[in-house]
Amino acid sequence: MRRRLFGSVRARATLGATLVVAVALLAAGASVLLALRSNLTDQASSEAESSARKVAVSIATGTAPAALELPDGDDTPVQVVDGDGRLLAAGEDLERISGTGSSAVKPVTPPVDDDGGDDGGGDDDGGSDRHGGKGKGKGKGGDDDSYAYGEIADDAEGGKGSATVDGETRDYRFAALEVKNTRQGDLTVYAGASLSAEQSAVGTALTVMLIGFPVLLGVVGAVTWLVTRRALRPVEGIRSEMSAITASQDLARRVPEPDTHDEVARLARTTNETLAALETSVERQRRFVADASHELRSPIASLRTQLEVGAAHPELLDVDGAVADTVRLQELAAGLLLLARLDAGERPGEARVDLATLAGEELSQRPAGRVAVRTHLEPVEVAGSRSQLARVVGNLLDNAQRHARSRVDIAVRAEGPWAVVEVGDDGAGVPEAERERIFERFVRLDDARARDDGGAGLGLAIARDVAVRHGGALTVRSSPAGGALFELRLPVAPVA
Q1: What is the pLDDT of residues 65-91, one digit of tens each?
Q2: Contacts of 19 (CB under 8 A, 6+ apart)
Q3: Cα dihedral sign for 289, 295, 301, 304?
Q4: Domain annotation for the chain: domains and CATH numbers
Q5: Three-class SS string for 363-391?
Q6: 464 exposed, middle or buried (CB, 10 Å; 0-12, 13-18, 19+)?
């Protein structure tokens, strides 16, 4: 069942289109999710850096860590850590944190007084010694008051972690911003921005994709199935009609041709052309068999009659007539055999044949008849079957001698790439309307039939078939003497 299903062009096209769309949707969906996550993460990083910079500005302008006004709420956890990793300040509701410089959530140092002293033994003099006196000494900025209490780093470092604020745990994007040369030394401010919006947006987009993609693939599959069904409907019509033709053996029937200009319409037209050629071939074969049977029946019946009379009355046996009928029967059988070989596609061969010599041999095998034969033979070689070409020249000579009144002309010459053999007579000629029909098998014109001495109407058909299979042509026109002029053209053999 599965083999039958996937053996259908419609099923394979539907499956292929669905797979292609599925791959495209997966790639697009992954790209959208990654871009969305990246944008929202960058936005959270910017928010975290902005919060950290606000706290850092307060520290750099002289506010002690313990006196900082840190952001409230669970969206912005903040830590202030000194160079030794001690937590100096933290958000009020911070319960747990990870991903920063310290996992502590409660400050470990006492607040700094307004004069700059601390409980670690420092006093006003100590503060003055470190920063140039009471928080107004020179830092890296020299006389610039913006560096009186500390210098804020230009860039913040990012990181990811989590924190529990007021009993709720979330993932955060943290920014670490360093403040140097404060009264407490070098400090680092950590501020976080919640990734809840990023996670919610990505989750929503993923849910939409998980629901929408299968629906979209189903729509694509259904549309492809319907479209291919419509497109292949003419093909099914062609197949069913061909099946009916095969069952009925009626080659006169034709497949339906759709009113389109696509591949299916061209297939239908080509199929009908093939059926027409096949019908012609079969009809030709039937007619050939019928004509051959008719032509064979006459000499066989005549020969049988003569033999039966000779057996009953030996003195009445017409030996010459029996021999003539036997020769006629032999020639007819040879002609039919040659036509069968030609129809079977027998290749002509590649032997080199001199047409002038061949014509001379054919003339020498014929006794002097009632008509004179004039020759003009120039040596010219062609490639092909010597026996088949001899049959052509012999048939043309026999036809000319049979219909000539007093003269037959035969010429062999070269015309560029062609070897030309012309055989003409001074007989009645061939009417222009009949000049193609005489090359059909078993066709004889009425006046030729009346004077025919036994021809079966195969000679000219054999001659043209042999000429065509040798890459040439055989035509007929009027001769200067008033009769018929047959012209045989064959390609000249290449130089050895």
Answers
A1: 877 878 765 568 898 888 888 888 888
A2: none
A3: negative
A4: 1-249 (no CATH), 263-343 (1.10.287), 351-491 (3.30.565.10)
A5: HHCCCCCCCEEEEEECCCEEEECHHHHHH
A6: buried
Q: Quote the strand ranges of 235-333, DSSP E.
A: none
Cβ neighbours of residue 255 closer than 8 Å, sequence gap 6 or more: 237, 238, 241, 242, 268, 271, 272, 275
Cite the DSSP H helix spans in 313-383.
319-343, 355-364
Task: Tell me what pLDDT residue 467 has.
Answer: 92
**Within 13 Å, how many C-alpha atoms sit on residue 43's CB side?**
13
CB 189 within 8 A of CB 70: no
The rounded percent of the chain whose pLDDT value lies above 70 is: 87
Whole-model pTM: value is 0.50
* The two three-digit tokens of residue 289, written as one number: 């068999």
Q: What's the pLDDT band for 293 if we cut at 50, 70, 90?
A: confident
The string of DSSP letters for 421-486 reads EEEEESSS---GGGTTGGGSTT---HHHHHH-SS--S-HHHHHHHHHHHTT-EEEEEE-TTSSEEE
Q: What are phi and psi of 20, to 5 degrees?
A: -60, -45
Confidence of residue 109 (pLDDT cuts 50, 70, 90): low
Answer yes or no: is pLDDT of 116 > 60: no
Residue 138 CA: distances (Å) to CA of 60, 129, 141, 147, 184? 13, 11, 7, 7, 15
Contact call for residues 385 and 348 (beta carbons, < 8 A): yes
Confidence of residue 129 (pLDDT cuts 50, 70, 90): very low
**Looking up tokens 């009425």, which residue turns up?**
446
Assess contact for 408 and 441: CB atoms under 8 A.
no
The span from the CA of 281 to the CA of 275, in Å, is 10
How long a stretch of residues is the chain?
A: 496
For 413, list phi and psi in degrees, rounded to 5: -155, 170
Question: By C-alpha distance, which of 291, 345, 311 is closest to 469?
Answer: 345
